[in-house]
Amino acid sequence: MTDGNLALKKAGLKVTLPRVKILELMQGPENQHISAEDLYKTLLDIGEEIGLATVYRVLNQFDDAGIVTRHHFESGKAVFELATQHHHDHLVCLSCGKVIEFSDDVIESRQDEIAMKHNIKLTNHSLYLYGVCTNDECDHGDT
User: Fold this and answer.
1) Is there a contact between 67 and 82 (Cβ–Cβ < 8 Å)?
2) Which segments are annotated as binding site?
3) What angle do the packed helices 17-26 and 3-10 form, to 10 degrees?
């Protein structure tokens, strides 16, 4: 049994072809922070006949089961990444949509200090920083 099949079984989900194919695609580094529509297009490109409604349904099931994490960046559409054991934050370019994951111990420590100062015990948090790429490859538009 593959790692993907084990992950599905562990999450209480039946091992089906659409679930396995979507999970396999999500494991590629180029498919982190991918929308349901882009995942659907990728499936079509590799010859998989999985409908868009099925992609949405599977991603929702994966989100409910903790296999993927759903993010709502400024673009307005949800993007998904595999749920990871390590916490990270995100930098998002408002022009080209590029998403960069980063971790910073100083930021994490400061967030804990601020929460404690206000008598809050953090159970979860996410940090999204928005800006514009400063390299020539970015499509900056009119910014």
Assistant:
1) yes
2) 87, 89, 93, 96, 108, 125, 133
3) 110
Q: Which domain holds residue 106?
A: 86-142
Counted domains in the chain? 2
Which residues carry a binding-site annotation for Zn(2+)? 93, 96, 133
Name the band, by pLDDT with cuts 50, 70 and 90, for residue 142. Answer: very low
Going by C-beta distance under 8 Å and a sequence separation of 6 or more, which residues neighbour residue 34? 26, 42, 79, 80, 81
What is the pLDDT at residue 139? 67
Q: In this model, does residue 39 exceed pLDDT 90?
A: yes
Known binding residues for Fe cation? 87, 89, 108, 125
